[in-house]
Write a structure and sequence with these properties.
By secondary structure, the protein is an alpha+beta fold. The chain is built from 9 helices and 4 strands. A hairpin with a 2-residue loop joins strand 3 (54-57) and strand 4. Helix 1 packs across helix 7 (151-166), helix 3 runs antiparallel to helix 7 and helix 7 (151-166) crosses helix 8. Pfam families: GST_C_2 (PF13410), GST_N (PF02798).
Length: 198
């Protein structure tokens, strides 16, 4: 049985949404970060960073939301959450799957902390560049790969949900609003949001 270690109102939302999209049976293991449960020795065996989310699946264990999304989509191809390794769309899928943790999240931190970092040294360029590039891609819609929803939409949609809708750290744009509306209309998103609320 797949076990998803999660905590309410946390980054666990991404993986809750992914698991709900997958249709796979899984057990949710509440890991109450307000009590320090993520630092317990047994939990650190699953995720040495002591963060949520984390996932175990038989002998496999991993942390990091995008990695969990990639693992489930690849390990269980019947979920149809990723193009096959031989599919040319796989390259764009991988780029956008990891865009949220490698570009959106650092851009949000840059906005929140108001840190000035030269674009030539910041791996994500600048917050403006991140959201301009994402807007141009989402304008093509309806999903990041066109007509086909994928795990990359889970990571991108979760990042935008956090940055634009929930915490309003990034100004709304028409392409973001339309994309988020499509994400929020998905039954799996709605179930995940109910679960994540605790």
């Amino acid at each position: 049985m797949i076990k998803l270690y999660w905590s309410p109102r946390s980054r666990s939302f991404t993986t809750l949404w992914l698991m709900e999209e997958s249709g796979l049976p899984y057990e949710r293991v509440l890991t109450d970060i307000s009590t320090g449960a993520q630092k317990a020795p047994d939990y650190l065996k699953v995720n040495p960073m002591g963060k949520v989310p984390a996932l175990s699946d038989g002998d496999a264990a991993l942390g990091e939301a995008a990695a969990i999304c990639a693992y489930i989509a690849d390990r269980y191809p019947e979920t149809k959450l990723a193009p096959a390794v031989t599919d040319p769309r796989r390259a764009r899928y991988l780029q956008w799957l990891f865009f949220s943790p490698s570009c959106i999240e650092p851009a949000i931190i840059q906005i929140f902390t108001k840190i000035e970092i030269p674009t030539s040294t910041a791996a994500w360029g600048s917050a403006t560049q991140v959201f301009d590039v994402l807007e141009a891609e989402l304008d093509k819609g309806p999903w990041i790969l066109g007509e086909e929803f994928s795990a990359a939409d889970v990571t991108i949609g979760s990042g935008l949900n956090f940055a634009v809708r929930r915490f309003k750290m990034v100004p709304s744009r028409p392409a973001f609003d339309a994309y988020l509306a499509r994400c929020m209309a998905r039954p799996a998103f709605q179930r995940a949001e109910t679960i994540a609320a605790g």
